[in-house]
Amino acid sequence: MKELLTVSSSPHIHRPGRIDFAMRIVIIALLPAFIFSIYLYGWRALSITLICIASCVISEAVIQRMFGKPITILDSSAVLTGLLLAFNLPPGVPLWLPVIGSLFAIVFAKQFFGGLGYNFINPALAGRAFLMASWPSFMTKAWLAPAGGTLSGIDGITSATPLTLLKNPANFGNAEALINQLHQMPTIKNLFYGKIGGCIGETSALLLLIGGLFLVIVGIADYRIVVGYFASFIVLTLIIPCKAHVVHHLLFHLFSGGLFLGAFFMATDWVTSPVTKKGRWIFGVGCGVLTVVIRRWGGYPEGVSYSILLMNVFTPLIDRLTKEKIFGQLRREKEATV
Questions:
Q1: Are residues 34 and 183 located together in one domain of the fold?
Q2: Torsion sign over Cα 62, 63, 66, 72
Q3: pLDDT in tens, 206-242
Q4: Is 226:264 a contact under the CB 8 Å cutoff?
């Protein structure tokens, strides 16, 4: 009888659908932004993305073979990790860098903890953080001007993305004038449509918004994390004093950097986000608050990746503090006191 039973840890919740199908839906949602990145950066975007995907798939197959585990590369999780890692890389990085980032993401952040379903942090973001810590010069300076636009959104500024320029405007000219130019509607429109430089997959807020809403509608991404993320980000951005028009300042921060990519596609990762409904609200709000804090007072101009990674670490605690009462628990407690 024992051989006929499959025993696993709780929760024992059945939900229709399969992991490989969900992974492919997320990949499909990212395709518009990926195609647009090829238009913006040409063969560099395509080659870096393909290198990331191939490195992730191969490293997963090799490490699973070494550990004597079933090879699960057909579930598309390694493909998605490679795609997301490529989206978080500057288009001008040397081609060996994606290989190292992919190896770290799959081997150290995923397989060493047991593989899919057991990793406690998002593998793609872990790979990006490792590359940022190891080769910061490549990760913060290997930018390329996009086709049909400028790197910073301001003519003559060719070495800084919008967030970098906002962080240290005095390094590039008249600080007040540059801040004013960044918050003009033409610059904000370019940010929204994707005519300004940045990482490969984060430039077009519009295309990421379309793909992200698709994931929310089909139930792949939980709206609680997304709404909590954006709501806390918006409120805190409006509260903190700025030198520009408050609405323009808000729109600038919403559409620049990796906010849409992070909120829709990485913070909502099933494995590394809370399982409880209350916990997902807390997780999203925490990501939004940390993103604003890092952007405003941190050493890096962007804060999305580190905010999600930090909240990943707190996910087990959030689940424990927000776990639902077991059915019938209240009655048993009352009976025990009688």
A1: no
A2: negative
A3: 999 999 999 999 999 999 999 999 999 999 999 988 7
A4: yes
